[in-house]
Amino acid sequence: MERKLILRGALAGAAAGLIAFVFARIFAEPQIQAAIDYESGRDAAQHALDEAAGLPVEHAGHDIFSRTLQANLGAGAGLVLFGVAMGALFAVAFAICLGRVGTLRPRNLAMLVALGGFLGVYFVPFLKYPANPPSIGHEDTIHDRGNLYLAMVACSIVLLIGAVLLGKRLRPRFGNWNATLLAIAAYVAIIGVLMAVLPSVGHLAANVEEYGRHATETPLPLTDAKGNIVYPGFDADRLYAFRLYSVGAQVLLWGVIGLIFGPLAERLLQPRKDRTEQAEPVRTA
Amino acid sequence: MSNLSAPTSVSTPVVVPVSRAVMWLVGTAIVAFALYYFIGVDQGAYSIFGKDMHIHEFVHDARHFLGFPCH
């Protein structure tokens, strides 16, 4: 049974990744291209400033893949494979939850597990360390930023599992509704403390040293020696649009996983009664 | 399908006994996390292929879009 569920999860994930890619290709790719253009323009302005000041100018290396390849094949492969990975993880979580989290139809359980995946894997970490388009993010801090992001993802997933276990434990004493609310409150409280304790990306030592104390790495206006603005900061509307589409794609990804997997799982789990008349009960390992 | 919509008071039976399924569940989770790592993290914060940037550059847009730190 678990093999059948995992296969269906991976397939649902692939389909969801493909749909998320179509969404991203239409809405997010123009934002990504504009952000890359901004970065190129800013680098050119920085070079002109450095040259005028007599500083050594380093030239960027050539790209390994063309932008066309990155925006279509690369992004498509990335999103579909991400979908497969998340679909498989989703199926594992679903298989473990089956029969252990109360009376839920497979479809409803699928949507709840998908909600958990969206929150645990993406959205809760996003609240602390949101998605950024190209040109936001300093190369020197990638190691720290990567660690912080992964720590946030790991903690949000583990705490989410903990909240489900807590809810199950509290249920006999407080009833279903109150136990659920208490578990959610505990999750929010702990993750809130964690978010307050973890440093903002802009507050990393390397950033404070080079750019001063700012909350994020979003580029500020570039100024010359006299303080005149020679190149604008990153467009706030563009950043908002990119993040909105990033969230939208993940809602789509997890939503489609749940919507495709739910009916598939229901067909797999429920035909026992219908089929017992004609065939032996479905009870494979 | 009528048996599905009727509310039941008994708990749904455990369908996948974890003791028997554990190899498949754990194996799948490991493969899924490995995929997650290669799509999102490798050749960024960490790199198991040294200074090579082919994976990073290939999935570059997806990486930004999926919320991973990049560059």
Question: Biggest chain pair contact, residues each?
Answer: A-B, 67 and 49 residues
Number of domains of chain A: 2
Strand order, largest beta sheet of chain A = 1-2
Helix content of chain A: over 70%
Mean pLDDT of chain A: 91
First-residue to last-residue Cα separation of chain B: 51 Å
InterPro entries (chain B): CbtB_put
Organism (chain B): Kribbella rubisoli
Protein name (chain B): Cobalt transporter subunit CbtB
Transmembrane segments (chain B): 21-39
What does this structure look like?
The complex is a heterodimer of chains A (285) and B (71). Chain A is an all-alpha fold and 285 residues long. Chain A folds into two domains: 185 residues, no CATH class; 81 residues, no CATH class. Chain A is built from seven helices and two strands. In chain A, strands 1-2 form a two-stranded antiparallel sheet. The C terminus of chain A is likely disordered. Chain B has 71 residues and is an all-alpha fold. Chain B has a domain of 49 residues. At the A-B interface, helix 1, helix 2, helix 3, helix 4 and helix 6 of A face helix 1, helix 2, helix 3 and helix 4 of B. Chain A: It comes from Kribbella pratensis. Chain A: Keywords: Membrane, Transmembrane, Transmembrane helix. Chain A: This is Cobalt transporter subunit CbtA. Chain A: Pfam families: CbtA. Chain B: Keywords: Membrane, Transmembrane, Transmembrane helix.
